[in-house]
Design brief:
Blueprint (H helix, E strand, L loop, with lengths): L1 E4 L4 E3 L8 H4 L6 E6 L4 E4 L4 E7 L2 E5 L5 E5 L13 E2 L6 E2 L4 E5 L1 H6 L6 E5 L7 E2 L5 E3 L4 E5 L1
Antiparallel strand pairs: 1-14, 2-3, 2-13, 3-11, 4-10, 5-6, 5-9, 6-7, 7-11, 8-10, 12-14
């Protein structure tokens, strides 16, 4: 069982509220989303593991059981070409849950006309594999979003 924690502080909104049909329809995988506070943030690792994919706007951490968790920092933020994002680790890095991976500013993302909502996706999982899913209410960075069994 893997506990997946929030990369940012904000308000849990659930995937259906993500303004992107691919995430909202859980086509990438099940999970939830967080509408982050509008201040400069460090996005945190959601699990202990290895960074297998790393872009300024998104990263994937795979845990020791081979479970990959995708964090997408905002919607359509790939179009910002890395502007406003600072990588704090390298691809292949071993990381601990709660470790800062990317520094960014959700307010700047919003000012650029993009949604700062952050999907947190259990890759290659089924919806029934996720328990204790948080889809509403305030969440703290490092707080539990779901348990993957």
């Amino acid at each position: 069982m893997t506990t997946v924690t929030s990369p940012v502080s904000g308000r849990a909104v659930g995937l259906p509220a993500v303004p992107d049909p691919v995430f909202a329809g859980a086509m990438v995988g099940p999970g939830t989303a967080v509408d982050p506070v509008r201040e400069p943030l460090e996005a945190l690792a959601p699990v202990d593991g290895t960074v297998v994919s790393l872009h300024p706007h998104a990263f994937v951490v795979v845990d020791d059981e081979g479970r990959g968790v995708l964090i997408h920092l905002g919607i359509d933020t790939v179009q910002l070409n890395g502007e406003g994002f600072e990588l704090l680790v390298a691809k292949g890095a071993a990381v601990r849950r709660g470790q800062p991976l990317v520094r960014w500013n959700p307010a700047a993302v919003e000012a650029a006309g993009k949604s700062p909502v952050c999907p947190v996706i259990a890759l290659e999982a089924t919806a029934d594999a996720l328990g204790e899913l948080v889809e509403a209410g305030e969440v703290e960075a490092g707080g539990r979003l779901f348990v993957w069994s």
